[in-house]
């Protein structure tokens, strides 16, 4: 009941004209970004981080969340009409959606996807309302050792679960941690890796790192391999669904969130795994198995619903534990740091207006998105015609605005380019970008918590594992680390042991 | 999940294939990443070990502990990566909607873009953001292959002025106006 009351208060915050404006702006930008190739929600939020200098936190986070959800909606439009996902979460949508579009059922595919996102987002956000305060209450008296354990979990998960090569993930994480070390040590004021430069004493701003890796690195990488003469989008009418389609898809819409939400909450790569799992599930349960691969509508509805629900799950971990499980959450965490707000169990107590305003605005945003995407999908598809030089020149332009806004220093632009070139090299050699970003964002905080914990325990390592919470987290870390070995054990090979 | 580490069993044969050392190096250019990580590790370790830790240390873990751990880990990872590359492991280049990996990298565009970007860093002070930003957009679009000599500069100028106005006047994030804004 308590959270219902808080949610009502949240609607009071979310429905003020100014916050409605931010929500509308967020979902508009998000849909556009989702549709546009080359820009993902993480890059978009990174490019918008400078607004945190001028905007109050509630409005900023309402806009960021709108971008996150909106990108999910928009991404599937590109997938279905162009067969090239505008967003990694929308890869699966292309598998059934594009054949549908080619067969003249694009309108139905778009409708199944949009309603799927709406259903998934709604159910996911309701689960967020129900679960987040409980998780926060459970973890409310966590201290330094627990925070450190969570950050270790984030480091390990992001390097060993995501991506294809652990060693490359680890290399990326270490690059991020090294960048995070630059500057004055927070506890002693000792300068580290500054090489006597005063500008570096403040450290490298997280905004510059995020913009450099996500925006500059990506733009340069695409520029080096720009596809000449891309595919054309299949023209499509206004999305709608017939009765028989609804009959086939409503269960898929409801099943998707059950898979998507939990996967969003754990550090397992966001929406990619759950959308795929949902696809497999729908295929297994469908009465029209033979249609799969040729345009089965369930294969669009389920995964898209799972994708949006996973976004809600991501917010649970980020808001209650400060644990970023996706790139967008990582950049949002950076925004929290810009405001000097520590996401975690205490967030619900200290910033109720922010948290509940944000959650309520998710419901508002979802309704706006459905209204925007169902009738206007053909219009959004026109965005695909934007000339690529303008698109990537625009990314570079806004990246430089963002980096300059950090401190008004031209030197920051040079640092930005250097980090962008690092991002370019990482893409060339298959080093995932996310671990580096997590390393920069969480590295300094992790060091501080580690030192604080050891200070309390007077140097004894036991101080790191003296709470049930931290022990639980380390067990999970251990499981993640040994999983490739465990999987080879004979009794785990066949199915799951009960 | 895709296993993108393409293990090529034939890498041993390729290394003796015609082309000699140059071809081998190109094939194993990822070793450069390993070298960079190693250098970075040495850098971090040197910085940590030459630090003067005197008075200020509070608690058992000082300002050098974490850098030492990170430095050693960098050295370790660089060696492991080199081993992986020599055994035929390859990091998969990132794909994307507008990315065509079948063609060789277009270095000219990348260098041009980096140059335009640096020019912006130099010019933003003396010329102000509205002018340097417009040059950045136009230059980038040109580098990327756009050749509309009337449309491109107009879009660049419009975008730059609009952004200046939104950030400087609406969001309260100051950008340098330069001589142009002094005139207007």
From TrEMBL, chain A:
InterPro entries to which the protein is assigned, alphabetical: DUF112_TM
Coiled coil: none
Domain of life: Bacteria
Keyword ATP-binding: no
Name of the protein this chain belongs to: Tripartite tricarboxylate transporter TctA
Keyword Zinc: no
Keyword field: Membrane, Transmembrane, Transmembrane helix
Organism: Streptomyces finlayi
Positions of transmembrane segments: 20-49, 61-82, 109-140, 147-164, 170-188, 200-223, 258-280, 315-336, 356-377, 389-407, 413-442, 463-486
Domain DUF112: 20-437
């Amino acid at each position: 009941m308590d959270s219902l009351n808080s949610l009502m208060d949240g609607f009071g915050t979310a429905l003020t004209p100014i916050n409605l404006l931010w929500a509308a702006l967020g979902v508009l930008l998000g849909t556009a970004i989702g549709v546009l190739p080359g820009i993902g929600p993480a890059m978009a939020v990174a490019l918008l981080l400078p607004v945190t200098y001028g905007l109050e936190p509630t409005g900023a986070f309402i806009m960021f969340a709108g971008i996150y959800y909106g990108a999910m909606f928009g991404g599937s439009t590109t997938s279905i009409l162009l067969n090239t996902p505008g967003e990694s979460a929308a890869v699966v949508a292309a598998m059934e959606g594009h054949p549908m579009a080619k067969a003249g059922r694009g309108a139905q595919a778009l409708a199944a996807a949009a309603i799927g996102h709406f259903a998934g987002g709604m159910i996911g956000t309701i689960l967020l309302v129900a679960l987040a305060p409980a998780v926060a209450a459970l973890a409310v008296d966590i201290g330094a050792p627990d925070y450190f354990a969570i950050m270790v979990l984030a480091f390990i998960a992001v390097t060993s679960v995501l991506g294809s090569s652990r060693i490359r993930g680890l290399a990326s994480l270490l690059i991020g941690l090294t960048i995070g070390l630059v500057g004055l040590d927070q506890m002693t004021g000792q300068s580290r890796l500054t090489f006597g430069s005063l500008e570096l004493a403040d450290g490298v701003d997280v905004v510059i790192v995020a913009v450099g890796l996500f925006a500059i690195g990506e733009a340069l990488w695409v520029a080096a391999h720009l596809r000449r003469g891309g595919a054309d989008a299949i023209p499509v009418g206004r999305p709608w669904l017939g009765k028989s389609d609804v009959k086939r898809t409503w269960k898929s819409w409801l099943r998707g969130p059950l898979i998507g939400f939990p996967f969003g909450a754990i550090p397992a790569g966001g929406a990619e795994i759950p959308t795929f799992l949902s696809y497999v599930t729908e295929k297994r349960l469908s009465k029209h198995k033979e249609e799969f691969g040729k345009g089965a509508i369930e294969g669009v509805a389920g995964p898209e619903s799972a994708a949006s629900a996973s976004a809600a799950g991501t917010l649970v971990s980020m808001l209650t534990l400060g644990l970023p499980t996706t790139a967008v959450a990582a950049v949002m965490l950076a925004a929290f740091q810009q405001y000097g707000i520590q996401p975690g169990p205490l967030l619900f107590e200290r910033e109720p207006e922010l948290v509940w305003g944000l959650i309520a605005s998710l419901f508002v945003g979802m309704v706006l998105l459905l209204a925007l995407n169902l009738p206007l999908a053909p219009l959004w598809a026109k965005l695909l015609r934007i000339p690529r030089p303008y698109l990537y020149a625009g990314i570079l332009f806004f990246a430089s605005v963002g980096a300059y806004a950090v401190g008004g220093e031209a030197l920051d632009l040079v640092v930005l380019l250097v980090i962008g070139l690092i991002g370019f090299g990482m893409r060339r050699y298959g080093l995932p970008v996310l671990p580096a970003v997590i390393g920069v964002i969480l590295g300094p905080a992790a060091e501080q918590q580690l030192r604080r914990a050891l200070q309390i325990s007077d140097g004894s390592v036991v101080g790191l594992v003296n709470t049930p919470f931290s022990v639980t987290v380390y067990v999970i870390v251990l499981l993640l680390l040994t999983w490739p070995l465990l999987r080879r054990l004979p009794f785990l090979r066949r199915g799951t042991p009960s | 999940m895709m296993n993108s580490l393409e293990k090529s069993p034939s890498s041993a044969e390729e290394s003796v294939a015609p082309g000699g050392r140059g071809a081998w190096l190109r094939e194993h250019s990822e070793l450069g990443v390993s070298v960079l990580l190693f250098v970075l590790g040495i850098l971090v370790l040197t910085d940590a070990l030459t630090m003067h830790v005197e008075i200020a240390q509070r608690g058992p873990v000082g300002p050098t502990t974490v850098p030492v751990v990170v430095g050693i880990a960098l050295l370790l990872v660089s060696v492991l990566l080199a081993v992986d590359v020599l055994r035929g492991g390859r990091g998969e280049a990132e794909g994307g909607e507008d990315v065509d990996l079948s063609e060789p990298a277009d270095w000219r565009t990348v260098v041009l873009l980096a140059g335009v970007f640096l020019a912006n860093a130099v010019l933003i002070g003396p010329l102000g953001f509205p002018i340097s930003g417009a040059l950045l957009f136009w230059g980038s679009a040109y580098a990327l292959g756009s050749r509309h000599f009337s449309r491109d500069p107009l879009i660049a100028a419009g975008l730059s002025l609009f952004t200046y106005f939104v950030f400087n006047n609406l969001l309260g994030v100051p950008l340098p106006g330069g001589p142009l804004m002094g005139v207007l």
